[in-house]
Amino acid sequence: MNDEMEEIILEFITEAEESLDKIEPRFVELEQKGEDSELLNNIFRSMHTIKGAAGFLGFQSIVDVAHAAENIMKRLRDGEIALSKPLMDAILKAIDMLRLLLGHLKEKDGIEENVSPLVQELNIALKSATPKTGNAAQNKEQVVPSSQAPEDFPKPANVVQSTNLQQPSEPTDIPVNSSKTIITSKPDETPVQPKQHGAIQHPVKVCADSSMQPNGSGENDQKSNETQQPSKDTSQKAQNLRVDVNRIDKVMDLAGEVVLVRNRLLNISNYFDFKYTDDPMTEILMESVSFLDRITSDMQLAVMKMRMQPIQKVFSKFPRLVRDISASVNKDVELQIFGEGTEVDKTVIENIGDPMTHILRNSIDHGIESTEERIAKGKSPKGKIVVNTYQKGTQIVIEISDDGKGMDVDKLKRKAIDKGILSEDEAQKMSYEDAIDIIFMPGFSTKEIATELSGRGVGMDVVKTNISLLNGYVEVSTEKNVGTTFKISIPLTLAIIQALMVEVDGAKYAIPLSPIEETLKVAKKDITNITGQNVIVIRDKVCPLFELNSILGIDSNGHGSSDDAEYKYVIVITMGDKKFCLAIDKLVGQEEVVIKALNGLDTTTSYVLGATITGDGKVVFILDVAGMSRNLLGLAKV
Amino acid sequence: MPDLKMKILVVDDFSTMRRIVKNLLRQLGYENIEEAEDGAQAYLKLKNGGYGFVVSDWNMPNMDGLELLKKVRSDAELKDIPMLMVTAEAEKEKVITAIQAGVNNYVVKPFTGEILKEKMDKIFERLQAQK
């Protein structure tokens, strides 16, 4: 198989998967809206297109499945049969099968699926479908085989082979009742080139059997063709180019390295600026370095944008998911999605699906009440879940709200005590917010019997872990009988962050800048101790204060000046609704750092997110303030 | 015989299909091929001029192949551009509709380069004959 062919197949797989992603939510919409011919036609068209392209590429199983599903869609679209649940289920099965088949193609695992039972099932579903009107009784295929179609209309009499190319053939009559417009058509003048003659003699085979010309430059030609002719009317349609992710990641890595070198150069040039202020070369150096500084930032942004994709990619699976889950627990739930065009980093796309799925399951299973219960409460019989995504500063926020029964904090506490996760005493002291966070504790699940859905051996704690792996955090707000909202906040980019460099006990640390609200210089006398917890008052609000060195488990061995200084530097950190302060020895400055993962490090207890190399060439730990917030405040006795 | 240098517009909403058709055309020796994603985009491109041939899919969002065909045929500037319609099944009624709307020929998916060539040759032979 040559490269061109392989590329086409890859493109087909991606495009077909995207089509399926797009139609899946439409199904659920269809179920809600009833028979909407535009929706039906959309789904029909996707099946139709997938079938068409698969036919060219010789993927017969895909053709068979898509064809059977298309037949159903066609008759639904044409209003011949009525939409029903069995039909819908059959088509959803077909979509699943198509995904599976595409998956095999992608993996190149050579696994063949036996699609005939499914095709049969689809055909039976079609046959047993209720005809909509009296006349739609014919269950037979409406499609005429091509041989019966108007045979290659306007057929010139002696069209044996296009041999006499030079001479115009005799004006032949057109036997079919074709319109005169054909006759008026004017051909291009065509001096025949001998080369083309050759092309006739060598019949071109189906592209599927790899007879595609290994025309490497072809793609380029096409691209340049397209760019040469920017059509002024088409409002400069964005051109797309599919690129292997690994290549982008490589560029991303390299950009990261450039950032590090840039940081070092900045340091060095500052040194020169200080030491050789009057040297004309110093000025040139400073100028070049500041230019490098600027373009590095631009490059970083550009590379970051390359990795951004609309979150739609993740969301498109949810309507079906919600449909299936709510059906299995006998609840009626409607899903509304907003902001699906919001762009997020590819890593986020890859990792946010699971936690969100879990939250949705949880909302349907535990949040939304049964229809009877809802009616009894005077709520609308249909439960509603709203997913809303938006960008807020440098954060992406995803909110998942349900209008279910909300969480019962007392019940949560009791469960946690019963399970031995919490002591009576701890539960007593717990604030409302902290009590809600119980759901994120490992080994906690509110339903007595783990249901098929929520009880898959993973609890909500996994949600929290997964999101904090993305350097984000999740907050919950709930109100009894009104509903629950999960709010996930994730930084826009994960690889390169702005950090505040601080010093504690002579060692430097980097703290991600985004959760830092402010830095303060606090007089020691302003630090008070309330029931064993240090606090400071910031603009009339009490905020817990922690010593960074004690959090990190460093013994103060007189290295720093922390204990004898009159003042302390304090960083105020906001994590969602929570605010806390970290006391440090010195503020060093702000730096752009590239996160390098540290293998074999327990990130949950060490409060270390990763490491970076600073401008002066030192390895510095990047601190995980989200983790601190979780552990320090989760059960803090504030 | 069609001119190998003529500008051809391939219209299909599925980019894999555009690529397949383009590949087939390239095998036949055509180099100057452009693409459009639907009838509306195709029409705008055609209005920019210079096209000698159109290969269009039938079922597309926004403006489908038949609408494009009708629009082209009723446009004084474009009405003479030969058009080949790609369909998935040769449905009698559809094909007749297309013929009445002035399509020059149609081809059923999937097709080989050989078939494509045959269809194109026929179109241009016929046009030549009518001159």
Describe this structure in words.
- The complex is a heterodimer of chains A (638) and B (131).
- With 638 residues, chain A is of the alpha+beta class.
- Chain A has 4 domains: 3-142, HPT domain (Four Helix Bundle (Hemerythrin (Met), subunit A), Up-down Bundle), CATH 1.20.120; 245-306, Helix Hairpins (Orthogonal Bundle), CATH 1.10.287; 310-491, Heat Shock Protein 90 (2-Layer Sandwich), CATH 3.30.565; 496-634, OB fold (Dihydrolipoamide Acetyltransferase, E2P) (Beta Barrel).
- Chain A has 21 helices and 18 strands.
- Chain A has helices spanning 3-33, 37-57, 60-77, 85-107, 116-127, 180-184, 194-201, 218-228, 245-275, 280-306, 312-315, 318-328, 346-367, 371-376, 409-418, 424-429, 432-436, 460-469, 548-551, 603-606, 625-634; strands at residues 308-310, 333-338, 343-345, 383-392, 395-402, 473-479, 483-491, 496-504, 507-512, 516-523, 528-530, 533-538, 541-547, 567-575, 578-584, 586-594, 608-613, 619-623.
- A 6-stranded mixed beta sheet of chain A has the order 10-14-15-13-12-11. In chain A, strands 2-4-5-7-6 form a 5-stranded mixed beta sheet, covered by helices on one side.
- Chain A starts with a helix and ends with a helix.
- Chain B has 131 residues and is an alpha/beta fold.
- Chain B has one domain (7-125): Rossmann fold (3-Layer(aba) Sandwich), CATH 3.40.50.2300.
- Chain B has helices spanning 15-27, 39-47, 65-73, 92-101, 113-130; strands spanning 7-11, 33-36, 51-57, 83-87, 105-108.
- Chain B has a 5-stranded parallel beta sheet, with helices on both faces.
- In chain B, strand 4 (83-87), helix 4 (92-101) and strand 5 (105-108) form a beta-alpha-beta unit.
- In chain B, helix 2 (39-47) packs parallel to helix 3 (65-73).
- The radius of gyration of chain B is 13 Å and the shape is globular.
- The model of chain B has no long low-confidence stretch (mean pLDDT 88).
- The interface between A and B is large, with 82 and 72 residues.
